UniProtKB/TrEMBL annotation:
Taxonomic lineage: Bacteria, Pseudomonadati, Pseudomonadota, Alphaproteobacteria, Hyphomicrobiales
Protein name as it appears in the record: RidA family protein
InterPro entries in the record: RutC-like_sf, YjgF/YER057c/UK114
CDD domains: YjgF_YER057c_UK114_like_6
Gene3D superfamilies in UniProt: RutC-like
Length: 128
């Protein structure tokens, strides 16, 4: 079994001591991902758009690992306000409505005040 790290190239990954994703054997562990728009380095206001941006980043990491959303077996969502769950679910339902991984939603504080949602996934890559 091999272990490989996936990086977005952000210097923060080295500073904070983490990888965007870690491939360990057939599993891909994607770190908590917030909704920054990396093209503009801005954070959108809405939970829906932050969630879409987070999933775009996650999808790139999964693709680099040889996985897709269909390989996701577990998700964890962190929201700063339970009242915004419907915005989150609009996006997660589009992506995982048929896949239906095990899931948890937690309401908590996040690192910066503009962050409203953070998404973390685990995938298992199967031989295709």
């Amino acid at each position: 079994m091999s272990r490989r790290l996936i990086s977005t190239g952000s210097p923060f990954e080295k500073t904070a001591g983490y990888s965007r994703a870690v491939i360990d054997g057939e599993f891909v562990f994607v770190s908590g991902t917030t909704g920054y728009d990396y093209a503009t380095m801005t954070m959108p206001e809405s939970v829906e758009q932050q969630t879409r941006n987070a999933f775009a980043t996650i999808e790139k990491a999964l693709r680099e690992a040889g996985a897709t959303f269909a390989d996701v077996v577990q998700t964890r969502y962190y929201l700063t306000d339970a009242a915004t769950a419907d915005e989150l679910f609009k996006v997660t339902g589009e992506i995982f409505g048929e896949i239906r991984p095990a899931s948890a939603v937690l309401v908590c504080g996040l690192l910066k005040p503009e962050m409203k949602v953070e998404v973390e996934v685990t995938a298992r890559v199967r031989v295709r």
